[in-house]
């Protein structure tokens, strides 16, 4: 029967679509990368999404974040994302968490409930805690490496963390994973050397914050990265594609997929 996912079903088949509908995916970080991952997941038929982010939209988000508009400035990202998800697919179950994922908030989440985890957060400590929690629960996870200070959306690659190069964040995560005995980790990273952003204090939202009042600030970074509309979005769509293909076992020899 014709439905909103008919075009996707032509590629994956009905059994795979049912598998997607039964899947629950957690997206940690609803920023430039995470919002595009969420968009592609709901349009692919994922049946349940957990959205984790305590940030609210500000003016500087409009250049790259899908759910950022003049009307959504000041609103929680997870609330805006939930509303949009239900406009696309009212049957999708959405759980929202207004919190930043850090080691101290790890116990708020039961990773055994997820079929897949997407890491689209910025802090190294948060990423490492997220990776460890997913690995301990034997839940698949894919991590976004550095998407800031980049200009080439075609430079992204999907690889194991130990096969990465160039990306400074991947180098740090690779080293820390080795120390922790983590033997494999699927990541999306860029082979483009990062660009040094202009040193323009008047454009830094750390020194000239325009966040909505009473916003809980995320952990402070040494530098505020430059970003574009087309680089983080490319990373987010690639991540969503990998999650969907893994969940339906696309390309695997189980007799049910092309």
Would you summarize the structure shown here?
Helices cover 31% and strands 13% of the residues. The protein is α/β, with parallel strands linked by helices.
Tell me what the structure shows.
The structure is a single chain. With 258 residues, the protein is an alpha/beta fold. The chain has one domain: NAD(P)-binding Rossmann-like Domain (Rossmann fold, 3-Layer(aba) Sandwich). The protein is 31% helix and 13% strand. The protein is built from 7 helices and 7 strands. The chain has a 7-stranded mixed β-sheet, sandwiched between helices. Helix 3 links the parallel strand 1 and strand 2. The longest helix has 17 residues. The radius of gyration is 18 Å and the shape is globular. It starts with 5 loop residues before the first helix and ends in an 11-residue tail after the last helix. The model has no long low-confidence stretch (mean pLDDT 92).
